[in-house]
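Order emerges. For instance:

***
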Amino acid sequence: MTQTATAGRGHDAHPATIGACLQAARARLPRVDADLLTAHALGCPRSALYAFPERPVSARRARRLDGWVDRRQRGEPVAYILGEREFWSLPLRVDSRVLIPRSETECLVEAALARIGREAKVLDLGTGCGAVALAIAASRPNARVLGADRDPGCVHVARGNARRLGLTATFVLSDWYRAFPAGERFDVIVANPPYVADEDPHLARGDLRFEPRAALAAGPDGLDALRQVIREAPAHLEAGGWLLVEHGHEHRSPVRKMFAAQNFEDIETTQDLAGLPRVTGARRPRPPARVS
Protein backbone atom coordinates (compact mmCIF):
# COMPACT_ATOMS: atom_id res chain seq x y z
CA MET A 1 0.00 0.00 0.00
CA THR A 2 1.31 3.45 -0.91
CA GLN A 3 1.17 5.90 1.96
CA THR A 4 -0.89 8.99 1.22
CA ALA A 5 0.78 11.08 3.91
CA THR A 6 3.43 10.77 6.57
CA ALA A 7 1.25 10.91 9.66
CA GLY A 8 1.59 7.97 12.02
CA ARG A 9 4.72 6.41 10.44
CA GLY A 10 7.04 7.11 13.34
CA HIS A 11 8.30 9.64 15.83
CA ASP A 12 10.40 11.41 13.19
CA ALA A 13 7.62 11.59 10.59
CA HIS A 14 6.26 14.97 9.69
CA PRO A 15 2.54 15.38 10.49
CA ALA A 16 0.17 15.03 7.56
CA THR A 17 -1.57 18.11 6.24
CA ILE A 18 -4.53 18.63 3.99
CA GLY A 19 -2.22 19.80 1.22
CA ALA A 20 0.09 16.80 1.51
CA CYS A 21 -2.80 14.37 1.45
CA LEU A 22 -4.34 16.05 -1.56
CA GLN A 23 -1.05 16.12 -3.46
CA ALA A 24 -0.44 12.42 -2.78
CA ALA A 25 -3.97 11.46 -3.86
CA ARG A 26 -3.70 13.50 -7.07
CA ALA A 27 -0.44 11.71 -7.89
CA ARG A 28 -2.36 8.44 -8.04
CA LEU A 29 -5.84 9.38 -9.28
CA PRO A 30 -7.57 11.78 -11.68
CA ARG A 31 -8.05 15.16 -10.03
CA VAL A 32 -11.84 14.91 -9.72
CA ASP A 33 -11.67 11.55 -7.92
CA ALA A 34 -8.71 12.61 -5.78
CA ASP A 35 -10.35 15.81 -4.60
CA LEU A 36 -13.68 14.15 -3.80
CA LEU A 37 -12.13 11.26 -1.88
CA THR A 38 -9.74 13.54 -0.01
CA ALA A 39 -12.51 15.87 1.16
CA HIS A 40 -14.68 13.02 2.38
CA ALA A 41 -11.84 11.08 3.99
CA LEU A 42 -10.54 14.13 5.84
CA GLY A 43 -14.02 15.28 6.82
CA CYS A 44 -13.76 18.74 5.32
CA PRO A 45 -15.51 20.70 2.56
CA ARG A 46 -13.75 20.69 -0.81
CA SER A 47 -13.09 24.40 -0.43
CA ALA A 48 -10.84 23.62 2.54
CA LEU A 49 -8.56 21.57 0.29
CA TYR A 50 -7.44 24.78 -1.38
CA ALA A 51 -8.01 27.32 1.39
CA PHE A 52 -6.24 25.54 4.27
CA PRO A 53 -3.56 23.22 2.82
CA GLU A 54 -1.41 23.64 5.96
CA ARG A 55 -4.10 22.35 8.31
CA PRO A 56 -2.96 19.14 10.09
CA VAL A 57 -4.70 15.83 9.51
CA SER A 58 -4.96 12.94 11.97
CA ALA A 59 -3.17 9.69 11.20
CA ARG A 60 -6.50 7.87 11.21
CA ARG A 61 -7.98 10.10 8.50
CA ALA A 62 -4.78 9.93 6.44
CA ARG A 63 -4.86 6.12 6.58
CA ARG A 64 -8.52 6.11 5.58
CA LEU A 65 -7.74 8.23 2.53
CA ASP A 66 -4.85 5.94 1.64
CA GLY A 67 -7.17 2.93 1.71
CA TRP A 68 -9.79 4.70 -0.39
CA VAL A 69 -7.20 5.71 -2.98
CA ASP A 70 -6.07 2.07 -3.17
CA ARG A 71 -9.65 0.92 -3.76
CA ARG A 72 -10.22 3.52 -6.48
CA GLN A 73 -6.96 2.54 -8.20
CA ARG A 74 -8.31 -1.01 -8.37
CA GLY A 75 -11.36 0.38 -10.17
CA GLU A 76 -13.97 0.39 -7.43
CA PRO A 77 -16.56 3.13 -8.08
CA VAL A 78 -16.28 6.27 -5.97
CA ALA A 79 -19.95 5.93 -4.99
CA TYR A 80 -19.32 2.53 -3.39
CA ILE A 81 -16.21 3.78 -1.60
CA LEU A 82 -18.08 6.74 -0.12
CA GLY A 83 -21.31 4.74 0.29
CA GLU A 84 -23.31 7.60 -1.17
CA ARG A 85 -24.45 9.13 -4.46
CA GLU A 86 -26.53 12.26 -4.95
CA PHE A 87 -29.60 11.93 -7.17
CA TRP A 88 -32.31 14.56 -7.64
CA SER A 89 -30.51 16.51 -4.86
CA LEU A 90 -31.07 13.56 -2.50
CA PRO A 91 -28.03 12.01 -0.78
CA LEU A 92 -28.70 8.31 -1.28
CA ARG A 93 -26.85 5.50 0.44
CA VAL A 94 -25.52 2.94 -2.04
CA ASP A 95 -23.42 -0.19 -1.88
CA SER A 96 -22.46 -3.07 -4.16
CA ARG A 97 -25.97 -4.57 -3.91
CA VAL A 98 -27.47 -1.74 -5.95
CA LEU A 99 -26.87 0.00 -9.26
CA ILE A 100 -25.30 3.43 -8.87
CA PRO A 101 -27.88 6.09 -9.86
CA ARG A 102 -26.97 7.93 -13.07
CA SER A 103 -27.69 11.54 -13.93
CA GLU A 104 -29.49 10.49 -17.12
CA THR A 105 -32.10 8.71 -15.01
CA GLU A 106 -33.26 12.11 -13.78
CA CYS A 107 -34.78 12.38 -17.26
CA LEU A 108 -37.10 9.50 -16.28
CA VAL A 109 -38.11 11.34 -13.12
CA GLU A 110 -38.84 14.55 -15.02
CA ALA A 111 -40.97 12.73 -17.60
CA ALA A 112 -42.88 10.93 -14.85
CA LEU A 113 -43.54 14.05 -12.77
CA ALA A 114 -45.16 15.70 -15.77
CA ARG A 115 -47.78 12.92 -15.66
CA ILE A 116 -48.18 12.36 -11.92
CA GLY A 117 -51.16 14.03 -10.30
CA ARG A 118 -51.21 15.26 -6.74
CA GLU A 119 -52.55 12.01 -5.28
CA ALA A 120 -51.56 9.56 -7.99
CA LYS A 121 -50.64 5.96 -7.28
CA VAL A 122 -47.15 5.31 -8.68
CA LEU A 123 -45.12 2.12 -9.10
CA ASP A 124 -41.34 2.12 -9.62
CA LEU A 125 -40.19 -1.24 -10.99
CA GLY A 126 -36.61 -2.38 -10.40
CA THR A 127 -36.23 0.33 -7.79
CA GLY A 128 -32.65 -0.53 -6.72
CA CYS A 129 -31.60 1.94 -4.03
CA GLY A 130 -34.98 3.69 -4.41
CA ALA A 131 -33.62 6.64 -6.38
CA VAL A 132 -36.55 7.16 -8.76
CA ALA A 133 -39.26 6.33 -6.23
CA LEU A 134 -37.78 8.67 -3.62
CA ALA A 135 -37.27 11.49 -6.13
CA ILE A 136 -40.96 11.21 -7.01
CA ALA A 137 -41.96 11.03 -3.33
CA ALA A 138 -39.92 14.16 -2.60
CA SER A 139 -41.54 16.05 -5.49
CA ARG A 140 -45.09 14.72 -5.04
CA PRO A 141 -45.47 14.23 -1.26
CA ASN A 142 -49.19 13.41 -1.54
CA ALA A 143 -48.70 10.69 -4.14
CA ARG A 144 -48.74 7.03 -3.08
CA VAL A 145 -45.35 5.75 -4.22
CA LEU A 146 -44.44 2.08 -4.28
CA GLY A 147 -41.03 0.68 -5.27
CA ALA A 148 -40.44 -2.96 -6.18
CA ASP A 149 -37.31 -5.02 -6.70
CA ARG A 150 -36.62 -8.74 -6.91
CA ASP A 151 -33.41 -8.42 -4.88
CA PRO A 152 -33.88 -8.35 -1.07
CA GLY A 153 -30.65 -6.34 -0.74
CA CYS A 154 -32.05 -3.58 -2.94
CA VAL A 155 -35.29 -3.45 -0.97
CA HIS A 156 -33.28 -3.17 2.25
CA VAL A 157 -31.17 -0.29 0.90
CA ALA A 158 -34.22 1.53 -0.51
CA ARG A 159 -36.12 1.27 2.78
CA GLY A 160 -33.11 2.61 4.63
CA ASN A 161 -32.86 5.58 2.28
CA ALA A 162 -36.55 6.37 2.76
CA ARG A 163 -36.20 6.30 6.56
CA ARG A 164 -33.04 8.40 6.58
CA LEU A 165 -34.50 11.02 4.23
CA GLY A 166 -37.89 11.08 5.94
CA LEU A 167 -39.74 10.34 2.70
CA THR A 168 -42.95 8.36 2.40
CA ALA A 169 -42.58 5.45 -0.02
CA THR A 170 -43.22 1.74 0.36
CA PHE A 171 -40.74 -0.85 -0.93
CA VAL A 172 -41.64 -4.47 -1.58
CA LEU A 173 -39.97 -7.60 -2.90
CA SER A 174 -41.27 -8.43 -6.38
CA ASP A 175 -39.93 -9.82 -9.65
CA TRP A 176 -41.37 -7.08 -11.84
CA TYR A 177 -45.17 -7.32 -11.48
CA ARG A 178 -45.31 -10.73 -9.79
CA ALA A 179 -46.31 -9.46 -6.34
CA PHE A 180 -49.21 -7.42 -7.72
CA PRO A 181 -52.54 -8.99 -8.70
CA ALA A 182 -54.04 -7.88 -12.00
CA GLY A 183 -56.72 -5.96 -10.14
CA GLU A 184 -54.15 -3.68 -8.48
CA ARG A 185 -53.65 -0.78 -10.86
CA PHE A 186 -51.49 2.33 -10.89
CA ASP A 187 -51.83 5.76 -12.46
CA VAL A 188 -48.16 5.81 -13.48
CA ILE A 189 -45.58 3.03 -13.73
CA VAL A 190 -41.90 3.89 -14.16
CA ALA A 191 -39.00 1.52 -14.75
CA ASN A 192 -35.27 1.75 -15.25
CA PRO A 193 -34.67 -1.92 -16.09
CA PRO A 194 -31.39 -3.49 -17.20
CA TYR A 195 -30.85 -2.77 -20.91
CA VAL A 196 -27.28 -3.78 -21.76
CA ALA A 197 -26.70 -6.80 -24.01
CA ASP A 198 -25.24 -9.81 -22.20
CA GLU A 199 -22.05 -9.83 -24.27
CA ASP A 200 -21.49 -6.08 -24.36
CA PRO A 201 -17.75 -5.54 -23.74
CA HIS A 202 -18.45 -2.49 -21.58
CA LEU A 203 -19.64 -4.84 -18.82
CA ALA A 204 -16.01 -5.89 -18.28
CA ARG A 205 -14.68 -2.33 -18.10
CA GLY A 206 -14.55 0.52 -15.61
CA ASP A 207 -17.10 0.91 -12.86
CA LEU A 208 -19.50 -1.57 -14.47
CA ARG A 209 -17.26 -4.45 -13.35
CA PHE A 210 -18.27 -3.75 -9.75
CA GLU A 211 -22.00 -3.19 -10.21
CA PRO A 212 -24.59 -6.02 -9.98
CA ARG A 213 -24.75 -7.63 -13.42
CA ALA A 214 -28.43 -8.48 -13.01
CA ALA A 215 -29.16 -4.73 -12.85
CA LEU A 216 -27.27 -4.09 -16.08
CA ALA A 217 -27.61 -6.96 -18.56
CA ALA A 218 -30.85 -8.22 -20.10
CA GLY A 219 -30.44 -10.84 -22.80
CA PRO A 220 -28.69 -11.01 -26.18
CA ASP A 221 -30.01 -7.61 -27.33
CA GLY A 222 -30.49 -5.99 -23.92
CA LEU A 223 -34.26 -5.84 -24.40
CA ASP A 224 -35.53 -8.83 -22.40
CA ALA A 225 -36.54 -6.84 -19.32
CA LEU A 226 -38.08 -4.02 -21.36
CA ARG A 227 -40.18 -6.54 -23.29
CA GLN A 228 -41.61 -7.97 -20.08
CA VAL A 229 -42.20 -4.60 -18.42
CA ILE A 230 -44.08 -3.24 -21.44
CA ARG A 231 -45.95 -6.47 -22.30
CA GLU A 232 -47.37 -6.92 -18.79
CA ALA A 233 -48.04 -3.25 -18.01
CA PRO A 234 -51.63 -2.96 -19.34
CA ALA A 235 -52.88 -5.37 -16.65
CA HIS A 236 -51.53 -3.02 -13.97
CA LEU A 237 -52.37 0.42 -15.35
CA GLU A 238 -55.51 2.45 -14.90
CA ALA A 239 -57.23 3.43 -18.12
CA GLY A 240 -55.40 6.53 -19.29
CA GLY A 241 -52.43 5.66 -17.08
CA TRP A 242 -48.83 6.05 -18.21
CA LEU A 243 -45.88 3.70 -18.45
CA LEU A 244 -42.43 5.30 -18.77
CA VAL A 245 -39.19 3.36 -19.23
CA GLU A 246 -35.53 4.25 -19.49
CA HIS A 247 -33.62 2.53 -22.30
CA GLY A 248 -30.41 2.62 -24.30
CA HIS A 249 -30.09 5.35 -26.91
CA GLU A 250 -30.02 2.68 -29.61
CA HIS A 251 -33.33 1.20 -28.41
CA ARG A 252 -35.67 4.03 -29.37
CA SER A 253 -37.24 2.28 -32.34
CA PRO A 254 -37.71 -1.22 -30.88
CA VAL A 255 -39.11 0.17 -27.62
CA ARG A 256 -41.63 2.32 -29.46
CA LYS A 257 -42.70 -0.75 -31.44
CA MET A 258 -43.19 -2.68 -28.19
CA PHE A 259 -45.53 0.03 -26.91
CA ALA A 260 -47.45 0.02 -30.18
CA ALA A 261 -47.80 -3.78 -30.08
CA GLN A 262 -49.58 -3.44 -26.71
CA ASN A 263 -51.93 -0.78 -28.15
CA PHE A 264 -50.50 2.08 -26.10
CA GLU A 265 -51.30 5.59 -27.27
CA ASP A 266 -49.45 8.92 -27.30
CA ILE A 267 -46.03 7.29 -27.50
CA GLU A 268 -43.35 9.88 -26.68
CA THR A 269 -39.56 9.66 -26.48
CA THR A 270 -37.51 12.12 -24.42
CA GLN A 271 -33.85 12.95 -24.87
CA ASP A 272 -31.35 13.14 -22.04
CA LEU A 273 -28.99 16.08 -21.44
CA ALA A 274 -26.58 14.62 -24.00
CA GLY A 275 -29.29 14.79 -26.65
CA LEU A 276 -29.73 11.00 -26.79
CA PRO A 277 -33.12 9.25 -26.76
CA ARG A 278 -33.33 7.95 -23.21
CA VAL A 279 -36.94 7.64 -21.98
CA THR A 280 -40.05 6.47 -23.80
CA GLY A 281 -43.53 6.69 -22.35
CA ALA A 282 -47.04 5.97 -23.51
CA ARG A 283 -50.61 5.96 -22.25
CA ARG A 284 -52.97 3.04 -21.81
CA PRO A 285 -56.08 3.82 -23.87
CA ARG A 286 -59.31 4.81 -22.18
CA PRO A 287 -62.38 2.78 -23.15
CA PRO A 288 -64.54 4.42 -25.80
CA ALA A 289 -67.34 6.55 -24.46
CA ARG A 290 -70.71 4.84 -24.45
CA VAL A 291 -73.29 6.23 -26.81
CA SER A 292 -76.65 6.56 -25.08
In short: Residues 6-14 have pLDDT under 50 and may be disordered. The radius of gyration is 23 Å. The longest strand covers residues 237-246. Residues 62 and 220 are 46 Å apart (CA to CA).
